[in-house]
Amino acid sequence: MARRMIPEPADLDKAPLRMDLAEMEALRLVDIEGLYQEQAGVAMGVSRGTVWRLLTSAREKIARSIMEGRILIIGFNENE
Fold this sequence. Notes:
Layout: E1 4-5, E2 17-20, H1 21-32, H2 37-44, H3 48-68, E3 72-76
Parallel strand pairs: 2-3
Antiparallel strand pairs: 1-3
Helix pairs in contact: 1-2, 1-3, 2-3
């Protein structure tokens, strides 16, 4: 799994975006594996609503990275 995405051109004046592993896992299960949000929730041990929130956040970060040229760091620890 990639740990960082750097758009071209990258806007290094803007703070990088950070996607945690839960967001990445929700994205993988739904958008790559094709699971429904409820199924992804069962696999992750969280509610469907939590999966929806994680997906929304992950997709927004990807879109911002592309549109704003911001670096996307994947798999950071929320306590950092």
